[in-house]
Amino acid sequence: MKYTLTALAGMALVAGSANAAFFSFASDTADRHWTFIGGNAPNLFHDGIGPAGKVDLMIDDNNGPLPTLTFSSRLQAQFDLKHVGSIPLGNGDFSHNYLVSGQFVFVDIATGTPLLFTNFSDGLFTARGGQDSWYSTAGFGADSFGGANITMSWGGAPLPGYGLNPGTFINPQGFQYTLTAINTSGQLPYDMSSPGVKLDQAMYPTEQWFAEGSYSASGNVPAPGALVLGGLGVIAAARRRRA
């Protein structure tokens, strides 16, 4: 028993701590496409980047010394809003707040490999607007530290210098999208017409809407040795039960 605990303690030192990685994309990498489109159902919105479009998913080594990696990716996303309250801000402005849930994945265009997958619930979507409208900007995201439920996972090849190995991340993890140029015209190139979108009595958009979007996220990635250590701990516990 004493030997087993000593051995496991030694392996814990070898396993090391979890790694972190940063992910992001800028809205202008999805040229000639709206990042998001809403309106198929009042409370739903989804990615607007067609088969010919892409976003440049960037991966950084937690602000470390390695260069940023860029993957040409296709964003596939679906989100569901639930209105929870609108707060008056004065001067006729309101903060419209929604719980948001959904999932999104970045698929590598070159190989068809799903790189980064996120499934979440109890995130927060906030849009400033009038009493019955959104203006032209909004934001939404989820944070495991703040109580949201998030499952992020990496499906690409191992990137040891960036702390990435195939598998599910551990907390803390979180992401944020910023929406700009929310409008109901959908025109490309955009001429700044029809900014914002009207809301119905339940505080959901009454028309199809379009928006640019940018993204950033961070994930805590288990070190490979930690996964091995977890399996050895189960074996050790089983041996103790048999003894």
Topology of helices and strands:
Elements: H1 2-15, E1 19-25, E2 36-38, E3 44-47, E4 55-60, E5 69-90, E6 93-108, E7 114-129, E8 133-134, E9 138-143, E10 149-154, E11 167-168, E12 170-183, E13 197-198, E14 209-221, H2 224-242
Antiparallel strand pairs: 1-4, 1-14, 2-3, 2-14, 3-5, 4-5, 5-6, 6-7, 7-9, 7-10, 8-13, 9-12, 10-11, 12-14
Protein traits:
disordered N terminus; globular; 2 helices; single chain; 243 residues; mainly beta; twelve-stranded antiparallel β-sheet; 14 strands
Question: Would you mind describing this structure in some detail?
Answer:
With 243 residues, this protein is mainly beta. The chain has one domain. Helix content is 14%, strand content 49%. It has two helices and 14 strands. The chain has helices at residues 2-15, 224-242, and strands at 19-25, 36-38, 44-47, 55-60, 69-90, 93-108, 114-129, 133-134, 138-143, 149-154, 167-168, 170-183, 197-198, 209-221. The strands form two sheets. Strands 1, 2, 3, 4, 5, 6, 7, 9, 10, 11, 12 and 14 form a twelve-stranded antiparallel beta sheet that branches. Strands 8-13 form a two-stranded antiparallel sheet. A hairpin with a 5-residue loop joins β2 (36-38) and β3 (44-47). The longest helix has 19 residues, at 224-242. The relative contact order is 0.21.
Mean pLDDT: 84
| Alpha plus pi helix count | 2
* Span between termini: 10 Å
Strand content: over 45%
Count of spatially separate domains: 1
- Largest sheet properties: 12 strands, antiparallel
Which stretches are poorly predicted, pLDDT < 50 over at least 5 residues? 1-17, 225-243
Number of strands: 14
- Tell me the series of helices and strands, N- to C-terminal: HEEEEEEEEEEEEEEH
Global shape: globular
Relative helix content = 10-25%
If you compute it from the alpha carbons, what radius of gyration comes out, rounded to the nearest whole angstrom?
A: 22 Å
Class inferred from helices and paired strands: mainly beta
